[in-house]
Specification:
Elements (H helix, E strand, L loop, with lengths): L1 E3 L9 H17 L3 E5 L11 H11 L6 E4 L4 H13 L3 E4 L3 H14 L14 H5 L6 E4 L6 E5 L3 E5 L1 H4 L3 E3 L7 H11 L4 E5 L6 H10 L7 E5 L2 E2 L15 H7 L3 H10 L11 H7 L10 E2 L2 H14 L2 H6 L5 H6 L7 H11 L10 H13 L6 H12 L4 H12 L7 H8 L3 H4 L2
Function: Catalyzes the attachment of glutamate to tRNA(Glu) in a two-step reaction: glutamate is first activated by ATP to form Glu-AMP and then transferred to the acceptor end of tRNA(Glu).
EC number: 6.1.1.17
Pfam families: Anticodon_2, tRNA-synt_1c
Length: about 425
């Protein structure tokens, strides 16, 4: 069972979408389920409406979760299982105040040593705990030995107990931390494989430790995805437009193309252009490169053009491209849906005569309006030359303007078959 577990705290980043897509493709390949879990337990950072947006974005990419879970609805299980860990002495109540902890962190900093929780509250007796009425958090006891796991991309990774430390699993307000809610929910929801960004590598042994503490024995498999760099080689941040999935969709990239491109990133694939269903036949998460992938907008544009070329008429119409053949043809001139729409709209809009060719423009226009239908461009051109006695630039420039609304553009002989039935409408 695979899952995607976004937090509804901001616009979806392409790194998140990439994780969603990889999880989804793997679930198709393994004929296993894919679920969506909205991780909304950090109430201060939640943004209203984001979960709806996440679901909508996934559906535009054709990603259909078998089930949608809302993490906060599991709160009773988080509380119950944290209590179980306390009773079983896998976790302990910690009464240290923020100020006390801050002072210890400051001291560690001055001593040049990494800060670790010093175990003060782990040593409290049952009476001392029960008679204490100060607010408390619950901490997991740090492991007694090295913890390791095999990452499908990074290989074997090991963590010393000190690096894991006695970390907080329940806050003083009785809400779970990310690591606890995530570990418990993955267990309760039957997740067996976690694919997520590499910023979570250090959380993984903590989540394994929690499940071990709860007596859960099902082994979790992991793949942590390298970060995506922008074109300057820096980590792609919110300041990079292309990091936002919304920006990409609003700019006019097709979801099919974005998905295809994200599968190509840092990967060796048997073909360059594919659908997610096709990718599910050969996708192998262990083939993803260990080094960061570099985002390349030109490559994405290329993939977008290729997807416009292979899309069905219905799909192109859905995207507002009412003239599918012209849309495919204009991929030689433009990459984004709005740019292509504009080119086609220009063909069908009233034209203004270019200053240098005002007379020729009118002459050719009336010639076209009274011309018999011509099958081929050559026939059309020859008939027009015969009727107007124009030639060279003073023929082709106004003709191009009449047919396309521009003075530069594609080969008219290639364009002609696509517009020949609409000539009278176009030349107005
Ligand atoms: N809510 C976490 C995030 O969006 C989930 C990470 C995970 O997949 O475990 O980063």
């Amino acid at each position: 069972m695979y899952r995607f577990a976004p937090s509804p705290t901001g616009d979806m980043h392409i790194g998140n979408l990439r994780a969603a897509i990889f999880n989804y493709i793997c679930s198709l390949k393994e004929k296993s389920d894919f679920i969506l879990r909205i991780e909304d337990t950090d109430t201060e950072r939640n943004i209203k409406g984001k979960e709806k947006e996440i679901i909508e974005i996934l559906s535009r990419f054709g990603i259909k979760p078998a089930h949608i879970y809302i993490q906060s609805e599991n709160l009773k299980f988080h509380r119950e299982l944290a209590t179980k860990l306390l009773i079983d002495k896998k976790a302990f109540a910690c009464f240290c105040s923020e100020d006390e902890l801050e002072a210890k962190k400051e001291k560690a900093k001055n001593d040049g040593a990494p800060y670790r929780y010093d175990g003060t509250c782990e040593r409290l007796s049952n009476e001392e705990v029960l008679n204490n009425d100060k607010p408390f958090v619950i901490r997991m006891k740090k492991p007694q030995s090295t913890m390791s796991f095999t990452d499908a991309i990074k290989g074997e990774l090991s963590f010393e107990p000190d690096a894991i430390d006695s970390f907080v699993i329940m806050r003083a307000d009785k809400t779970p931390t990310y690591n606890f809610a995530c570990a418990v929910d993955d267990m309760l929801e039957g997740v067996t494989f976690v694919i997520r960004g590499e910023d979570h590598v250090s959380n993984t042994p903590k989540q394994d430790l929690i499940r071990q503490g709860l007596g859960y024995t099902q082994k979790m498999q992991y793949a942590h995805l390298p970060i995506i760099l922008n074109e300057d080689g820096k980590k792609m941040s919110k300041r990079d437009d292309a990091s936002s999935v919304k920006w990409m969709l609003e700019s006019g990239f097709m979801p099919e193309a974005i998905a295809n491109y994200l599968v190509l990133l840092g990967n060796k694939t048997p073909v360059e252009i594919f659908t997610l269903d096709e990718a599910a036949k050969w996708f192998d998460i262990s083939k993803i490169s260990r080094s960061p992938a570099k985002f390349d907008l030109n490559m994405l544009k290329h993939v977008n053009r290729e997807h416009i070329k292979i899309a069905s008429d219905e799909r192109l119409k859905e995207l507002g491209l009412d003239k599918p053949n012209l849309a495919r043809f204009y991929t030689q001139e433009a990459s984004l849906i709005p740019e292509i729409k504009e080119k086609i709209a220009k063909i069908y809009s009233p034209k203004v005569a270019p200053n240098e060719y005002k007379n020729e423009f009118e002459i050719i226009k009336s010639a076209i309006l009274s011309l018999k239908p011509c099958e081929s461009y050559d026939e059309f051109k020859n008939e027009l030359i015969k009727a107007t006695s124009l030639k060279g630039k003073s023929f082709f420039m106004p003709l191009r303007m009449l047919l396309t609304g521009e003075l530069k553009g594609p080969e008219l002989s290639e364009l002609y078959p696509l517009i020949k039935d609409d000539l009278k409408e176009i030349v107005k």
